[in-house]
Amino acid sequence: MDFIIAGKDRIEQGFLMVPNTMDVENNGRDSVFDFAISLSAEDAFYKGMQFGAYIFSPGTEYGGKLGNLKSITQEGSAAWQGFTWRGLLEMKIIQPGEGQDYYTVSGEANSIVSELLGDMAPLFAVPETDSGITVAGYSFDRYTTVRKGLEKMLRNYGGRLYIHAEQGKENEPFSVVVECVKAQNYSDEIEYSQDSNFNFTLENKRNGLNHVICLGSGELKDRQVIHLYADADGHISKTQSYSGADEVAGVYDYPNAESLEALEEYGVEYFRGKMNRKSFEVEITDGTEYEIGDTISGHDLVTGMTVSAPVTGKIFRLSDTGEESVEYILEVSE
Q1: Which residue in 277, 254, 255 sits closest to 267, CA to CA?
Q2: Which residue of 227, 234, 304, 312 has the fewest C-beta atoms within 10 A of its own C-beta?
């Protein structure tokens, strides 16, 4: 895969030919959206690499903005780090308007993305074409990130974000296209297992929380308290399903909750990250590409464990031997 260096003005300076290793991580499960490039110290400023410059692979989501330089004199090496494109979207917050409880949107999905990105143009470009996805009265979580908010909104409408860098014409800046497309389900076509000859890890967590005590504003006996429970099918309610030795409880502390409704909303979100879940990680080296939001599946022939879920993370790796691989991360609460 080819990577290009571009200056602060987004004008291409040349191909990145000198990395020892590279990791480009968009991992929604762990909220890591950054990249790292290791290279020799003498190549630290190769072809205009500097703070605020960019790297990108045309036609893909792999790339980002250089923001941190680390020098290791003992090894004679250096490492550039920075936010990926999704990482930059993770650094922008959706704020309710003055006097509004929530930021609420309706209309064609691409137009909503364009509205939210706003002053992030011209680095980010949103097509004016109709995505085929129409949003009706969707309210974003209060003070959520643009990345998280858009991904959650689109999941509700069967869509996903498609992010890819596009080269400009000669001596013109590149741009990062962000658009809404329909998510694809490949789980019926491809199932990764030992027979696939890929390395993968599949986890079925059955000791997650099934009771969360949500603590809101107030003091002592006057403090807001909500009890949330999960049943065997992963549904969250206020009816207890497990007791005794089967109960696994935890506390969610939200002392600044503005209301019981807000406490419950954020408590449910916290709960989903702590309850029973299946996760699947597969490292693919044959060039097959899936996108964040598309659904794939994995099956362990030995234990019989199976998971089918949308991709929540992608990690591109370039090893010191020049081998490229992409790790896909899936996770679903049950």
Answers
A1: 254
A2: 304
Please, are residues 282 and 149 in contact by the beta-carbon 8 Å criterion?
no
DSSP state of 220: G
Structure confidence by residue, pLDDT tens digits, 1-54: 899 999 999 999 999 998 889 999 998 877 899 999 999 999 999 999 999 999
Q: Are 168 and 175 in contact (CB under 8 A)?
A: yes
CA distances from 63 to 87, 216, 271 (A): 10, 40, 33
pTM: predicted TM-score of the whole model, two decimal places: 0.78
d(CA 264, CA 266): 6
Amino acid at 286: D
> Beta strands 249-253 and 211-215: pairing type?
parallel
The helix, strand and coil proportions of the chain, stated in percent and rounded to the nearest 5, come to: 20, 45, 40
Is the peptide bond between 255 and the residue preceding it cis, with omega within 30 degrees of 0?
no
**317 and 327 in contact (C-beta within 8 Å)?**
yes
DSSP state of 303: T
